[in-house]
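Input record (Table S2, row 702):
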Amino acid sequence: MSKPGVLRLFPEEEYVLPGHAACPGCPIGIGLRYVLKALEGKAIVVIPACCTSIVAGPFPRSAFKVPVLHIAFAAAAATASGILEALEAKGITDVHVVVWAGDGGTVDIGIQALSGAAERGHNIIYICYDNEAYMNTGIQRSGATPYGAWTTTTVTGKREHKKDVPAIMVAHRIPYVATASVGFPVDLYNKVKKASMMKGLKYIHLHAPCPVGWRFPSEKTIEVARLAVETGMWVLYEVVYGKFKLTGPSARLLDKKQRKPIGEYLRLQERFRKLSEQDVKELQDFVDSQWEYITKMLER
Amino acid sequence: MTSRMDVKKLVLTSNYAAAYAAKLARAEIISAYPITPQTTVVEKLAEFIERGELKAKMIRVESEHSAMAACIGASATGARVFTATSSHGLLYMYEMLWWAAGARLPIVMGVVTRAIAPPWNIWTEHADILSPRDSGWLIFFAESAQEVLDMILQAYKVAENEQVLLPVMVGWDAFISSHTAEPVDVPSQEIVDEFLPPRKSAAFLLDVKDPVSHGNLVFPDFYMEFRYLMQRGMESARDIIRKVDEEFGKIFGRRYGGLIEKYRCDDAEYALITLGGSSGDAREAVDKLRENGVKIGLCRIRVIRPFPVQDVVECLSNKEGVIVVERDISMGLCGVLATEIASVLFMNGIQPKFASFIAGLGGREVSVEDFLKMLDFSLKEFQRGNKRVGPHWYGVKEEVIP
Ligand SMILES: Cc1ncc(C[n+]2csc(CCOP(=O)(O)OP(=O)(O)O)c2C)c(N)n1
Ligand code: SF4
Ligand SMILES: [Mg+2]
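Output record (iron/sulfur cluster complex):
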């Protein structure tokens, strides 16, 4: 039986098994499914404290058909370094060491370990799935939460903008940095494949709309994810050895007129419900400046 | 020609002895972060690797938290790993210490014991190594460079035993041991290989061909069993430590007596209890008192976890008085060793006279004279009918205390 839609492009084998513990509409199962398909299950996955610690399912079962090492919140990248070196010591070279970490575990508490592993040039695929808050602990703001968003610790809306960690990773001059979205699986799949063929630390920042934390209906995950890209709030690109390239639908959004107004994206989410007009403008300006940065990078 | 029984006599600090031990144990992954006074352990190992004498990978991490995380990753993949740290470094990896133990990984770590700031102090104190004592790490403590080397070799054998499968830290004192050189017998690689074969593969290692998950969420209906199994590993470790020490003795000709080392203890009426590098001075003090007809012995604690319950009970059950001198203080109570020994004695219905001293914090010297003063004071108090002496802060300069 052939699978519907985009799945017919990918290997049949499933590594994210039925019965996992995610909320309905959760982006984790979607993203991880494509990632593990792209790696054909030849991956040891390190997971720091995050929603996925729960999604994996409780002892004695696991919803993931790959070896998993759960680890403390700040420790994912360093743990991956240890696995990698041990594999190399044993002469095993055909297994990918993958970190699957949330935005909190990446852009906040885990950034030191990530930076260290990147600087050491460790051969790791690091994937940050970004649901733009600490969801596991009940929707607290993170460094990746966008301006204006409600969280339980920014009840009147966050006053700071999202931290640009892909740019920080580009500054590490690693071989591969990419952004991706659960709404664009082929783009994600291709990026993981590409990363898997390079040596060094590969960083993929995966936009992952969370219906629970962002307050939208659970059947709208893909719609929200796609609107983030179509409005230019989230930009799909890859940076291969320092060379920038827009990918997927973002490739035709360099011209501002092609982008949908961010309101279309914001409107779907309760977390932005209290945004004033001024706030929307502030966000729009930020999005525009983000595109200016990308334009500069493309010209490099 | 070299034979397997060949021994090289080298003059080594405890730090270098530790590096030689990790090399002889054929550690495959070394992951560490520098901190005074641990640095020379890792520098020496880096030198061994660069000279091609040790086939190991060194992960030069950016923090101690990451050092232990990398050890965990490597050990869960099946490698034999080594690391070393001290003081703030040990505290910085505190979260990962619990992780390593809970994950049942046979990591071996050297801990050069040092005081904790503020104020900054780089000299010896046992506050660091005693603070993770509830974490599930076995905690050993050596007195000499030779013992550091021997203990690290033994530590791997104990940690990797299937009935134990817990990490081990081996402690020694900052500067007194870490940077003081003494002659050390360094055994041949061949004979160490016989004593300590490569780490065995096990079903639970990370392997894509047979995927397992480590550390999934466990609900209250099972968590307690995981902890119970760790405690059982600890309990089994006592006998295994003794057996490993015996086996080591047969092969290398050096035995330490297992979890405690007794010196002139058997016929003693009083026992002095110590930990680590100042035990040499304690031994001399015991000799001096013996010359004066006082029947006293020394019980040096070599293993803090698992706590040497039977050994301490056996050693102290017939004693008139026990005197604990230690380089640590559990703020708000008293010394950690005194607390633990008193509790073991109480639980076994033994009630000798008991004196307790906090001495030598932050590297202040504790000399033979100092031991003699503390012992003299205790014995006098005991004779005056005082059954409980202290806890006293020995040598605190009252004149500078506001
Ligand atoms: C040292 C430490 N501090 C705090 C926590 C509590 N904690 C667990 S998961 C989490 C948030 C995770 O957020 P993120 O990485 O964004 O993943 P998400 O849950 O959103 O998927 C926090 C704060 C912890 N486990 N460890
Ligand atoms: S809170 Fe969000 S990210 Fe976490 S499991 Fe639920 S849907 Fe997924
Ligand atoms: Mg998050």
